């Protein structure tokens, strides 16, 4: 299982996705931990079993155990936070914004890896999950930590491509079942 085998599964009509997948992962300027933590967190957030099966072994091989666990933790906590904060933001009754969240999210304060890496992974997952409040919050932390816009954009490019590949391959799997 690998990036190459995932690219090989992308159908011809989605050639741009195949090329982008190779580019955003294979030619990334991100440090290895930031890159593979982003890939793993996004593979989880994509909810595509195909994508996760293909990318997880390579991510695990390129991450130290604590970074592997932290990337999974970023995907988990942001799955909760993105729904909560997106909903709070979308409600027309803004009083919900004054209420205490009451949700445990201790891993954000102590992720077991460099805080910037965890924030980058949380940001990328928030891009997949479409939470503007979380995107703004994590982007501000990343920028204050000194990351350039190009680095931040690299994370949401990875998120966009992994999400699109997952949606495409999952759709192809369903269509293949229907045709059988």
TrEMBL record:
UniProt-listed InterPro entries: AhpD, AhpD-like, AhpD_core, CMD-like
The organism's place on the tree of life at top rank: Bacteria
Entries under SUPFAM superfamilies matching the protein: AhpD-like
HAMAP family for the chain: AhpD
Catalyzed reaction equations: N(6)-[(R)-dihydrolipoyl]-L-lysyl-[lipoyl-carrier protein] + a hydroperoxide = N(6)-[(R)-lipoyl]-L-lysyl-[lipoyl-carrier protein] + an alcohol + H2O
Family membership: Belongs to the AhpD family.
Alphabetized UniProt keyword annotations: Antioxidant, Disulfide bond, Oxidoreductase, Peroxidase, Redox-active center
Disulfide bond is among the record's keywords: yes
Catalytic site: 131 (proton donor), 134 (cysteine sulfenic acid (-soh) intermediate)
EC number(s) recorded for this UniProt protein: 1.11.1.28
Enzyme class: oxidoreductase
Protein name: Alkyl hydroperoxide reductase AhpD
Subunit structure: Homotrimer.
Described purpose of this protein according to its UniProt entry: Antioxidant protein with alkyl hydroperoxidase activity. Required for the reduction of the AhpC active site cysteine residues and for the regeneration of the AhpC enzyme activity.
Disulfide bonds: 131-134
Domain called Carboxymuconolactone decarboxylase-like: residue spans: 96-177
Pfam families: CMD
């Amino acid at each position: 299982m690998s990036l190459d085998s995932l690219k090989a599964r992308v159908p011809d009509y989605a050639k741009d996705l195949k090329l982008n997948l190779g580019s955003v992962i294979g030619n990334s300027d991100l440090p290895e931990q930031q890159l593979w933590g982003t890939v793993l967190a996004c593979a989880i957030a994509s909810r595509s079993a195909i994508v996760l099966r293909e990318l997880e072994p390579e991510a695990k091989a390129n991450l130290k155990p604590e970074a592997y666990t932290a990337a999974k933790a970023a995907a988990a906590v942001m799955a909760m936070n993105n729904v909560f904060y997106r909903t709070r933001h979308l409600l027309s009754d803004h009083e919900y914004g004054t209420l205490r969240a009451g949700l445990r999210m201790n891993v954000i304060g102590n992720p077991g890896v460099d805080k910037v890496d965890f924030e980058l992974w949380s940001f990328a997952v928030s891009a997949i999950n479409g939470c503007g409040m979380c995107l703004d919050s994590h982007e501000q932390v990343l920028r204050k930590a000194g990351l350039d816009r190009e680095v931040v954009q690299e994370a949401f490019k990875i998120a966009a491509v992994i999400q699109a590949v997952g949606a495409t391959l999952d759709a192809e799997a369903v269509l293949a079942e229907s045709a059988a």
